[in-house]
């Protein structure tokens, strides 16, 4: 079994928090992880994928919670939302750490009555598809190196030869396990159908359920671009109110996410629109009908998928390294942009540009250099991730760094 880097964070949360929610997309390994913890700790395990168990809990939430003893693991908690108030009452009577370990395939923090029920009593731990480091059996040290100035000192290997395959495969455990391209495509098709036809329907009433697959494809085609709702709505033939609601639902089930615009006080006119990314490049490539060969032939598509990949890997590493670090993009009204801005809780900033090329020139550092000069002491590092093999300094606190630094130890 591939060891998950987030496991330590879950155990730490269980040691001092009554309720811990492992939240993430379907088929990212939540059940495997919590069942292993349940077996190790002797916790009772219930899954609401089992219809009988779900009916029992939904029929009498208070009774269900009252009749469990010791630590409890509840899988797919979003299917029985009325359990949250019952868990709250139980925790208010006994705030012993580690009482409930929950999993959810929908983001309960976007569902007000659920998240408010356990405010101050529950810690949410995100789980993403496999990171590159997890698949390789090592823990990435990129974030630490990025902020302590040693990002150029990691032992690196070339990533060019396997990059397109890695992007087209993605990180979902089942997609990683399937070596045959056709079998992987069959899994992605089934996965998307299950989420759009069942999970979304269970969360909310959707009048145009048939429109969601096309909307998701349109969003995949716009991955790593600024989110323009008017353009998406026109192409999807959806009114604005429906589009915003459907987009929120796709975020709730962890298929897409918005990378917000970073807004420092630099006295500049800034673009405030978020960028849109799919949670997994394998999913995005499947929706676009793009295999590894097409990625190598279509440089524009490769660039968008590479940026989405880097954002995804950073989200994963932040989740177990420093969850207080924020991830944004930066763009001025004049077109100067930085793909990713990372800001730690202490205010220090690092910036990352992504280039799907083995050659880079001075202009690729222009936005990083301007940001460094304006932020001064707050600026920790600016790097351009590229497809070359050499680490090259490019001025004070600026480096050209091979992409493989992203998953180096």
Walk me through the structure.
With 409 residues, the chain is of the alpha/beta class. The protein folds into two domains: 7-126, P-loop containing nucleotide triphosphate hydrolases (Rossmann fold); 132-407, no CATH class. The chain has 18 helices and 14 strands. The chain has helices at 7-16, 30-41, 51-59, 61-66, 83-93, 112-117, 132-136, 142-148, 160-169, 173-177, 181-203, 212-221, 229-236, 240-252, 281-288, 292-297, 299-321, 366-375; strands at residues 19-23, 44-47, 72-75, 100-104, 122-126, 225-226, 256-259, 275-278, 326-331, 337-343, 349-354, 379-386, 392-393, 398-402. The strands form three sheets. A six-stranded mixed β-sheet has the order 9-10-11-12-14-13, with helices on both faces. β3, α5 (83-93) and β4 form a beta-alpha-beta unit. α9 packs across α15. The longest helix has 23 residues, at 181-203. 43% of the residues are buried. The model has no long low-confidence stretch (mean pLDDT 93).
Structural descriptors:
single chain, 409 residues, alpha/beta, Rossmann fold, 2 domains, five-stranded parallel sheet, 18 helices, 16% strand
Percent range for helical residues?
40-55%
Rg is: 22 Å
**Residue runs with pLDDT of under 50 for 5 or more positions:** none
Sum up the overall morphology in one term: globular
CA distance, first residue to last residue: 20 Å
Mean pLDDT: 93
Beta-strand share of residues: 15-25%
Number of helices: 18
Q: How many independent structural domains?
A: 2
- Total strands: the figure is 14
Coarse structural class: alpha/beta
**Largest sheet properties:** 6 strands, mixed
Q: For the largest beta sheet, what order do the strands appear in spatially?
A: 9-10-11-12-14-13
